[in-house]
Amino acid sequence: QVQLVESGGGLVQAGGSLRLSCAASGRFFSINTMGWYRQAPGKQREFVATITSSGSTNLVDSVKGRFTISRDNAKNTVYLQMNSLKPEDTAVYYCNAVISTWPRGREYEYWGQGTQVTVSS
């Protein structure tokens, strides 16, 4: 059973920083794209950032220059470094990964349980 476990959320003042982590566990062949999405109260879940297995990144325009996505393939972990946080960044942040599963190598998409990020003004 593949699981994604997130950590690192919390309460921070505007202008502050947080780093989210998401570790994949279980039996699988490889992790392909990993990423982060967020959902604010009353809004739909939206894309934040993704990173491929080779390190190519993509970020939504609203976080470019403030957020950085990275991964440690040896630890099956993806990170989201969030700097210069704004109140509008307040949301539940979800980790996402496309994983080639054991034993047949089929790809499935997995989600973490979510971690709350609250930015106060």
Structure in words:
- It is elongated and about 50 Å long.
- Strand 9 and strand 10 form a beta hairpin.
- It has strands at 3-7, 10-13, 18-25, 28-39, 46-51, 57-59, 67-72, 77-82, 91-101, 107-111, 115-120.
- The protein is 0% helix and 60% strand.
- The protein is built from no helices and eleven strands.
- With 121 residues, the chain is mainly β.
Brief descriptors of the model:
seven-stranded mixed β-sheet; mainly beta; 60% strand; four-stranded antiparallel β-sheet; 121 residues
In brief:
By secondary structure, the protein is mainly β. It is built from no helices and 11 strands. The chain is 0% helix and 60% strand.
SS summary, helix count = 0
Average pLDDT metric: 96
Radius of gyration: 14 Å
- Provide the structure class: mainly beta
How much strand content do the residues show?
A: over 45%
Low-pLDDT windows of residues = none
Question: Terminal Cα separation, in Å?
Answer: 40 Å
Oligomer: single chain
Helix content: under 10%
The coarse overall form would be elongated
Could you spell the SSE succession in H and E letters?
EEEEEEEEEEE
Count all strands and give the number. Answer: 11
Q: Mind describing the biggest β-sheet?
A: 7 strands, mixed
